[in-house]
Amino acid sequence: MFKTIARELKEFILRGNVIDMAIGIIIGASFGKIVDSLVKDIIMPPIGLIMGKVDFSNLYWQIYPGNVHYPSLEAAQNAGAVTINYGIFINTIISFLIVACAVFILIKFINTLKNKVCKAEQAEEAITVKECPYCCSEIPINAKRCPHCTSELG
User: Fold this and answer.
1) I need a surface site. Which of 4, 38, 90, 93 has the fewest CB within 10 A?
2) Is 122 helix (H, G, I), strand (E, B) or coil?
3) What mean pLDDT is predicted for residues 136-148?
4) Residue 51: is its pLDDT beyond 90?
5) Total tally of structural domains belonging to the chain
6) At a CB cut-off of 8 Å and minimum separation 6, what does 13 contact?
7) Residue 44 DSSP class
8) Distance of CA 107 to CAs 11, 43, 45, 93, 125, Å?
9) According to the model, what pLDDT value does residue 126 have?
10) DSSP assignment string, 119-147
């Protein structure tokens, strides 16, 4: 019984689509880290500077306790304050938009490439017949003799 389960598991894991999916997940996770760094370390600092030296990762609303204000989100969380971290949420939205744009561009590129290949294949498939110069019948392109008028073709 265990040998059967082990064999089935091995067959499942070694299927091409499972391995492709695993590679996609690993690359996606790495890409996500790159985009997070891009947003947090490159895009948001200039935007924060333009908006009056705002650090988006420190933007929060403190819910409880309401009478004490902390200088940073980290200080508030260390003190046990309940906060709504809308600055981190803004960073996450920008990260999502960058990933969505990158995926859109990638899929658009793949679809364009696929359409070119399909058109080339259709063009090759379209030229499978020719016209007999003697009887004007449609004959296969590689024919040496016309099946309709039996003329020899060059």
Assistant:
1) 4
2) helix
3) 89
4) no
5) 1
6) 19
7) H
8) 30, 24, 30, 21, 26
9) 67
10) HHHHHHHH-SEEE-TTT--EEETT-SB-T
Query: pTM for the whole thing?
Result: 0.60
In this prediction, residue 21 carries a pLDDT of 83
Q: Confirm if 91 and 56 have CB atoms less than 8 A apart.
A: yes
- Is residue 28 within 8 Å of residue 20, measured between CB atoms? no
Residues of the domain holding 37: 2-127
Q: Give a yes or no: residue 43 inside a domain.
A: yes
In angstroms, rounded to a whole number, what is the distance separating the alpha carbons of residues 74 and 80? 10
Asked whether the predicted pLDDT for residue 61 surpasses 90, the reply is yes
Angle of helix 2-13 versus helix 16-37 axis, rounded to 10:
60
- 110 with 83: CB under 8 angstroms? no
* Kind plus residue range of the DSSP H or E element containing 105: helix 86-126
Q: Name the residue with tokens 């046990």.
A: 80
Contact 48, 55 (CB under 8 A): yes
Please tell me the predicted confidence (pLDDT) of residue 88.
92
Residue 132 lies in a domain: no
Question: Model confidence over 96-107: pLDDT tens digits?
Answer: 898 889 889 988
